[in-house]
Amino acid sequence: MSVVAVLGAGAGGLSALVELQGAGHRVQLWNRSADTLAVHVPDGEVRYAGVLGTGTVRPDLVTTDLPTALAGADLVLVTLPAPVHEAVFTALAAAGCARPVVLNPGHPGGALHARTVFVQAGVPVPPIAELSTLTYVGRVDPDGLVRTTGRAAGVRGAALPGGQVALDGARELFAQVDPVADVLVTSLSDVNLVLHPPGAVLGAAWVQATGGRFTFYREGMTDGVVRVLAALDEERIAVGAAFGHTLLPLVDEMALVGTVDAATAATGDLGGAIRQGEANATIAAPGSFAHRYYREDMPFGLVPFLALARVGGVDVPVARSLLTLARTAVGDLPAGRTAARMGIEHLGVPEVLDLVGGVPA
């Protein structure tokens, strides 16, 4: 049994809370917003439904004070969206966090970003590991009920040098974590990096016209969108190859996670596999440009991807075009996870590989 500080009371954090407490671990739940906790964890209790069962669970601790959440924890599990990572990493550094930190997920470049924040703060870098994708598919209803519609069957996991204890902790909590060479593999295996930008950009007019009243993974995955998605995936695989890594095609990565049917994936029909996937079947399209498919997956998915592509010397015109169109249409996207924020601004391939402790697969 471990004591886990779960940072984040959204669908990912609450799903982790449900599963970990069910497995006998103690959970200390932290969230920055007291208002969110009041809705999602009223009276210190979480209501849940879906693939993890139906019922209620009460964490050992619920708090908005980070040092309190970290006290006595064996491991820190960050289940927050990438746009708030900077603030959370800064807070962890200010608290002098030395406990193993697991980013579930890291989003592209997450572990490198965390390392940079600690280094710039002059604080020793704790053991850091990241997962390639969130271990759950879920949403929180307006009344606070967390609906977990999917649980990842397999995810990639890797640690920065010195972070093996964090990766070991992740594997203790989540048996489906498959260790890979380095955090470049986990970052480039993030399915949302490829899965969301084409549909969000090409479906932008319909998002605004309907307020997102269509299913993103079914009605939104037209043949044209899938062709762009496939081209973006080819660029992702090419960037991985520039660092000596062989990445799975998106459809196989999604089959590993469990968000598409393995038999359909085996046919190579990317569009059919996505449209027929049950875990994502009912997920609605973004209701506006404020949605995370725009404000997270563009600046915190495509931006770090383009940075890695530059280091690897790989031309990625589809990724570059999607980001340009998104910035133009949305108008106020944040800078995102830049090369400087990952600490790779002036590095080449050998230096980046040395930084992540990786070796070509």
What does this structure look like?
With 361 residues, this protein is an alpha/beta fold. It has two domains: 3-181, Rossmann fold, CATH 3.40.50.720; 192-355, N-(1-d-carboxylethyl)-l-norvaline Dehydrogenase, domain 2 (Orthogonal Bundle), CATH 1.10.1040. Helices cover 45% and strands 14% of the residues. It has an eight-stranded mixed beta sheet with strand order 5-2-1-6-7-8-11-12, with helices on both faces. It has a four-stranded mixed beta sheet with strand order 4-3-10-9, covered by helices on one side. α4 (85-94) crosses α5 (110-121). The mean pLDDT is 94.
| Number of discrete helical segments | 19
**The CATH homologous superfamily of the largest domain:** NAD(P)-binding Rossmann-like Domain
Structural class: alpha/beta
Instruction: Tell me about the largest β-sheet.
Output: 8 strands, mixed
What is the alpha-carbon Rg in Å? 19 Å
Q: What's the CATH class of the largest domain, please?
A: Alpha Beta
Q: Reading side by side through the largest sheet, how are the strands ordered?
A: 5-2-1-6-7-8-11-12
Strands, count: 12
Residues in helix, %: 40-55%
**Domains, number:** 2
Report the CATH topology name of the largest domain. Answer: Rossmann fold
Arithmetic mean pLDDT: 94
Any key phrases for this structure?
single chain, 361 residues, alpha/beta, Rossmann fold, eight-stranded mixed sheet, four-stranded mixed sheet, 12 strands, 45% helix, 14% strand, globular
